[in-house]
Amino acid sequence: MGTLLKRHRWIAPLALLAPGILWLLVFYVWPAFQMFIASFWSGSLETGFTFSLSNYTNYTEAIDQFSEQYLRSIVYAGTATVLTFLIAYPLAYTIAFKGGRYKNLLLFLVVAPFFTSFLLRTISWKIILGDGGPFLGLFKDLGVLPEDFRLLATPIAVISGITYNFLPFMTLPVYVALEKVDIRLVEAARDLYAGPWRPGGAIVGALLGGVLAGVLGVVFAWSWPLMAAAGALAGGLIGWLLVSESFVRVTFPLSLPGVFAGSLLTFIPAIGDYVNAEFLGNPETRMIGNVIQNKFLTQNDYPTASALSFTLMAGILVVVAIYARILGTEELSTGGRV
Amino acid sequence: MTARATSLETGRSRAPRTARVQRLADRYLLLVYTGLAVIYLLLPVAIMILFSFNDPAGKSNFVWQGFTLKYWLHPLAVNGLPEAVGLSLILAFLSTLAATALGTLIALALVRYEFRWRSATNSLIFLPMATPEIVLGASLLTMFVSIGAAPFFPLWFGTILIAHIMFNISFVVVTVRARLAGFPRHLEEAAMDLFANEWTTFWKVTFPLILPGIIAAGLLAFSLSIDDFVITNFTAGKTQTFPMFIYAKARIGIPVQVNVIGTIIFLVAVGAVALTTLAQRRSRST
Fold first, then answer.
1. A49 in reach of chain B (CB within 8 A)
2. Helix H segments across chain A?
3. CA–CA gap between residue B92 and residue B86 (Å, rounded)
4. Cβ–Cβ under 8 Å, residues A132 and B60
5. Per the structure, how many domains does chain A have?
6. Which residues numbered 184-243 in B keep a CB inside 8 Å of some CB on A?
7. pLDDT digit string (tens) for A129-180?
8. CATH C-level class of B79-254
């Protein structure tokens, strides 16, 4: 049976792969290449474009002119990635180790926001963070915030929007990694006298809590030393109580692949995002995505826009290559999904 | 009373008290935190649903004015909205169908066969997921413009469909492959031993077993497609999908009906996931 197939073993995988791979080659690889070509164009949509290598100036000019937006994108996306890690890790940990029979329900709740339009969720934040909204309105009524205080149209709003929107991208890979941790290793560590990690936990917790609360104090124009002190106290106490040696030396190191995958899956969409900056920010919070979409869709300035987005892609590919070297592509692409 | 006295005598009262606080913290702190995190995750969804019952004074639906059902009774009564929603649904349906077929075939090949170019194939699957949406959209737009002829230019429904199939393939591959990884190969071998040919074996044994994975991949592809804004915005031209309709209206005030449609989509999606989970659980228990 199937002697033809046996003799030409390569036919079966080729037939399975061909249609999908062809689609990706024609509509992913070729466009990327075409964008690279377009970044050496000059001219306009009306007069037509001409290709010349001397147009490498597209790159130098674009980066010269928009280095501020690049830098801002890196800072916003980086901050948001760190914040998603801090929010997602305890969440993923609880689901993985204390979820019990509610595990699936909790996972479902984590991804449930994805069933709502990304734009509508961001607009919801506009309502929540609004000047007279439920959150600020309450604080203002209580008199703890000045009347003219606002969050909308500030970098804080943009970063919180990004943090919120990409939180599940961090939570799921971290959960998957934690779920894989062999509980027997943790038990073995305990048998070998791994106890609570009091001084270390207290110090790390105090530092984290202090910095976070201090930053919050600065943002809300409250007395930040007081906030930092309170945060440090709370963080220190929690760290002192909850962090164990088995966590620090077994569970956490084993979950690092998930943290790497999650930070990549958060950072990449975050750095290219322009919806949060547009809805929640102001002209001073424009990210590189805003510039690219404006150049492409409003000004039809394809050469500059291509140079900008090719630079963005190249930068990300370098980061991805480093990550892939550490983790392997298969691990990276499966770590992201449940 | 006596127990307490002895423990005071031996000076052990501190240790058990710390242990008790520790146990309380262990048990409740993380649970309370998780509750807060879930509230945080779902708060914007709740706001969207709540504001579908709002009766705003002006055009913008940002401040709560009062409860009304009138937008739920006429959810499509806005110019351009029914067309946009219809287009999004057709788009999501077609792109899901195509991407699920193409992606499942790739996943089968990746799990079943050893071949050269395997790691290159893996990279090609992974790269679209590792590229920011704006770059995917922008590069497609550049290609369509530089071709400059039908069916790619001017941009239309077909160019959006091309883009959606493209970004969905990778997600389907990853989802189906995860399902195939723990696949019981001996069942296929048993079928072959019982004189089923490869075709019959695939449809009678393999396909039913990986069907849950394919359904999960399809649901994922559908939800990614129906929600996509960035890539669509670059490849749509004058065509308007539901997310593009929202974006266009965001400047001048979003009609309440958008919240109604958003809520309906949310409920249907939640229902679909709940149903497939239940069906899976039932098939596993029999």
1. yes
2. 3-7, 11-24, 30-38, 57-98, 103-111, 118-129, 134-142, 155-180, 183-191, 198-219, 224-242, 245-246, 252-272, 275-280, 288-297, 302-327, 329-335
3. 10
4. no
5. 2
6. 197-198, 223, 227, 229-230, 233-234, 242-243
7. 988 777 888 888 888 888 888 889 999 999 999 999 999 999 999 999 999 8
8. mainly alpha
